Amino acid sequence: MHGENNSVSVGGTSAVAMFARWLLLLAMASVACSQTVEESAREFLKKFDEEATNLVYQYSLASWAYNTDISQENADKEAEAYAIWSEYFSKMSEESSAYPIDQISDPLIKIQLQKLQDKGSGALSPDKASELRNIMSEMSTIYNTATVCKIDDPTDCQTLEPGNVSCTYITTQIIKRNLRIINHKPCFPIYNNKRVYYEDHGDYWRGDYETIDEPEYSYSRDQVMEDARRIYKEILPLYKELHAYVRAQLQDVYPGHIASDACLPAHLLGDMWGRFWTNLYPLMIPYPEKPDIDVSSEMVAQGWDELRLFKEAEKFFMSVNMSAMFENFWTNSMFIKPEGRDVVCHPTAWDMGNREDFRIKMCTKVNMDDFLTVHHEMGHNQYQMAYRHHTYLLRDGANEGFHEAVGEIMSLSAATPSHLQSLGLLPPDFKQDYETDINFLLKQALTIVATLPFTYMLEEWRWQVFKETIPKDEWMLRWWQMKRELVGVAEAVPRDESYCDPPALFHVSGDYSFIRYFTRTIYQFQFQEALCEAAGHTGPLFKCDITNSTKAGNKLRHMLELGRSMSWTRALEDVAGTTKMDSQPLLHYFSTLMEWLKEENQKNNRVPGWNVNINPTDANAFKVRISLKSAMGDDAYTWNTNEIYLFKSTMAFAMRQYYLKEKGIKMDFMPENINTYNETARISFYFVVMDPTKPDTLIPKADVEAAIWLSRERINGAFLLNDETLEFVGLQATLAPPKEEKFTVWLVVFGVVMGVTVFGGIYLITTGILNRKKKAKKADETVNPYENSDDGEVNKAFEEDIEQTGL
């Protein structure tokens, strides 16, 4: 038995050994196969890098030519270069699928293959890709060539960028109205084509933040939405206090236009989009007697030109051990808007793709705002130059928000009074105290804090549009509902689905993800806190200026050089010591201002927050209720956008009739002058009428009411309704069918007539009897019936006849 056991044991050992050898051989074969796949992938990516670098450079040159000289010829050349690049990328993307990512061990190869196998718009068919490119080119051209002109001087026009910053109530309304020029084109393309690995276009954008890494460094596309919504709630108390303060100041500037608990009018926020409130600062200065920390006028007084802004920014970067700009930067960039041609003025930093050519395109003005923008754009270039040694697919920021944050870090230091004083833009005797600190922080908040809800709302709206949770026929309705709810900003004039406001923003027309500007603000303060600590800064974070700190610069530069070679969560940890987005550094930066705002608002009985139901146009608006079922029962027609158009046309007719007949004025009201809003499924809506000669002006409610009364029958007839089923709320019925009274009207009239007749008959009979008695006494006297008497009685022959009539 023992021997048997030994025999079995020996036999079992032999079987186990054989199985182990088999596993070892299998593993070795697998490793060899893996190494073969990995080596092949490495060679494939090397070839791709060489070819892609050349093709991207050619496409970048064509794109630069179009952006700095908008013409059909340049648009065609750009489209041609893009088609070549797109076709090549799609081809290589297909070929890259021969290298399964799960058989690759080198993380850098994995990252590159993952990015290459994401086809992006290359997933579209050639005809769809061409259509997409044409639409985007057309929308970009519309945006960059669109102008707004003054009503009283149609020749005085401005492009959308640089932004029009007029603070007059009327002019800014005109601008908002004239932006409707963009509505003649598609609102913007909806990319519903299913992409590899992605649910929709928003999911595709959020993929930029996704990391495939160890659990502590992994990050999903859904987490982008979760973090954005979380951080929005965290910064909301600060934003509400700022909002309440700004609203109060605007009430003083524009008395009678803004209620104390209302949303802010979109056209009064300092730029074309209400994105940044920086230009409101002159109206908002908490302590105006203090020296002005906006040094725009001092720059002009000292003779600064546009080039000086760029030279000073370069000096700043070099002081923290960053690179000097390449020589060709100064010859290839566009610093000012050229005469005689249309250009894309929106500031952008360009990596042309060949590792040697970096540029900035900007229609620079000599002012503090552009001074900070130059630092921001040059920050992009510094990032691009830092990672230029990588292969093409790794030459990018850790994520899109990182790229934006780097430029903003530099702007934080460049904006500090201490830095401006070092440049001679503030006087040597300038002293920072509590009041100058509040002035500075408020100016910063108008730029930084004010834009966060705007950014989050825009992208939240687009995410929902892409997921189709917002139907296409409610885009504008939900846009302004969300703008009111999340941002506390209301439309300047009523909007309906014939408008399309989102493409008025460069990033929407250009098809750019926008959440980068939200995440960048959070990263920016996380970076700033870490760099200031490295620089040895003590005291409040808002006073930190890292100029001349090579320790801070080296810490940042190390992160920049990583490019896309590791997960952004690791890159963030490398600088800030955490893998998570954190709003606390931002809230620390503005904590002094937060306390001041709370105290100031409480002292003046201002309640932070806003009532989303207050409409600035309500005083001149009518509510309309329509009851098709009540009027027609089962024969009721369907109420749709065509019916709304008919209503607008009918009201335009009524307004024309009223002005012509009652005022003797020919006014060419058009359907577009009738603005409807707050439409409900039960068929009710509000409308106001705009003056066709002054698009910023509402027609007074009294005139609209008079026009309705004058043409009510025509209005009702257009819809086969009456006053009861087409109701202008607040107006009495004008042509309603006669209602049955308790007593029939003709009986009442007959009774009155009969009463008068009977009374008259009694009176005449009585007077007749008396007259006969008198005549009986004079029967013997001879009387000439034609004799005139002193009593004035004439022609007595007719008197008898009259008496006989009974009248």
UniProtKB/TrEMBL annotation:
Residues the record lists as binding Zn(2+) 1: H376, H380, E404
Cofactor(s) in the UniProt record: chloride; Zn(2+)
GO annotations of cellular component type: apical plasma membrane; cilium; cytoplasm; extracellular space
Catalytic residues in the record: E377 (proton acceptor 1), E377 (proton acceptor 2), H507 (proton donor 2), H507 (proton donor 1)
Signal peptide: 1-34
Record's bilayer topology term: Single-pass type I membrane protein
Gene Ontology terms for molecular function: carboxypeptidase activity; metal ion binding; metallopeptidase activity; peptidyl-dipeptidase activity
Keywords assigned: Carboxypeptidase, Cell membrane, Cell projection, Chloride, Cytoplasm, Disulfide bond, Glycoprotein, Hydrolase, Membrane, Metal-binding, Metalloprotease, Phosphoprotein, Protease, Secreted, Signal, Transmembrane, Transmembrane helix, Zinc
Subcellular location: Apical cell membrane; Cell membrane; Cell projection, Cilium; Cytoplasm
Cofactor remark: Binds 2 Zn(2+) ions per subunit.
Binding site for chloride: Y209, R516
Protein name, UniProt field: Angiotensin-converting enzyme
Binding site for Zn(2+) 2: H376, H380, E404
Transmembrane segments: 743-765
Pfam families tied to this protein: Collectrin, Peptidase_M2
Species this chain originates from: Sinocyclocheilus anshuiensis
InterPro entries in the record: Collectrin_dom (IPR031588), Peptidase_M2 (IPR001548)
Entry similarity comment: Belongs to the peptidase M2 family.
EC number: 3.4.-.-
Catalytic activity: angiotensin II + H2O = angiotensin-(1-7) + L-phenylalanine; angiotensin I + H2O = angiotensin-(1-9) + L-leucine
Residue pairs linked by disulfide bridges in the UniProt entry: C149-C157, C345-C363, C532-C544
Domain Collectrin-like: 618-807
